[in-house]
Amino acid sequence: MMISSFHPPERTLMGPGPSDVSPRVLAALARPTIGHLDPEFIRMMDEIKQLLQYAFNTQNELTMPVSAPGSAGMEACFVNLVEPGDKVIVCQNGVFGGRMAENVRRFGGEVILVEDEWGQPVDLNKVESAFKANNGVKALAFVHAETSTGVRSDAAALAKLARDNGALTIMDAVTSLGGIEVDLDGWGIDAVYSGTQKCLSAPPGISPVSFSERAVAQVRDRQSTVPSWFLDKNLVMGYWGEGTKRAYHHTAPVNALYALHESLLMLKQEGLEQAWARHDHYHQALKAGLEAMGLSLLVDEAYRLPQLNTVTIPDGVDEARVRSRLLSQYSLEIGAGLGALAGKVWRIGLMGHGCNSRNVLLCLGALESALIAEGVKLESGAATAAAAAVMA
């Protein structure tokens, strides 16, 4: 078979991630590669750190991008903070809380699982009861924005519960960073990880993380060696620390970090609160259009994510055929349900650069056409008209 250069199709990405990448960020990827210890690259590393501190709302010294996807950021938090025998309360209300629990088990910790129904936020009363029933809990782990369900949990209240009980907090902010409020210092979060491919709208493959001084002290005072050499924060800080002299740890993904720098700069130029407001504005427009088609959102409005809309599939509709039609006819990607929600919902992302009026109208028009083809009785054009009215 003759193999030639790969030229991907142009897609509009409105699934749970990755999201559409801005031309500015794509152009940054194509800039000349320089050495990962080059003085100019080190200068840029310092700027990335400052921009991540801005995005996370933190002054944490240990704030940096892990040279691997969000799953590695998750592992970086757990492998550094969890030792054999440590008790960790893990909140699971979707797929990614389950992955947190698996990390705790693999590093020898004891999982105290707090489970909630998929589509519901973490129940604070259950977490409080778990602390009362278990002495010496090391950490509380929870997902701020559960990508599998579109639910936002109350990070500030969860962090306060942890502090009141002398425990650290480990937070998944993969889908929340850049899309809704994240305030590490204001909430008192000790360790957090995110991803570049959601509301930051950079290519997948990098995971921003941040550790509080309290968390750093726990890492330094460990009784056992961090079992991952690559993710050991004691070692990585020699490369991502302050000053021009850096200790070689690994070859950083130079061009991918150019892209992250550009995406974070775009976030700073827009402003955090403006970015959060934009995500909410276009979510309201999409919601109006979906409701005009008779569709409903799974998650209650009080804790619904604007950047990840979980839509209940109408009875009798072949959800996979609808997604396939959107992809083949409109080059539009939306996501399927995961786990307990597989076959029951679509997940429509409005993330970062892809959170705009064009994508809202494209998605609604394409979905309306696909549903009509499935035999659903709809008023043609009502969805886009409802969305346009909100955007006006």
From TrEMBL:
Substrate binds at R347. It comes from the Bacteria. The keyword Transferase applies. InterPro entries: Aminotrans_V_dom, Aminotrans_V_PyrdxlP_BS, PyrdxlP-dep_Trfase, PyrdxlP-dep_Trfase_major, PyrdxlP-dep_Trfase_small, SP_NH2Trfase/AEP_transaminase. GO terms for molecular function: alanine-glyoxylate transaminase activity; L-serine-pyruvate transaminase activity. Signal peptide: none annotated. The modification N6-(pyridoxal phosphate)lysine is found at K198. Keywords: Aminotransferase, Pyridoxal phosphate, Transferase. Residues 33-337 form the Aminotransferase class V domain. Its cofactor is pyridoxal 5'-phosphate. Belongs to the class-V pyridoxal-phosphate-dependent aminotransferase family. This is Alanine--glyoxylate aminotransferase family protein. It comes from Motiliproteus coralliicola.
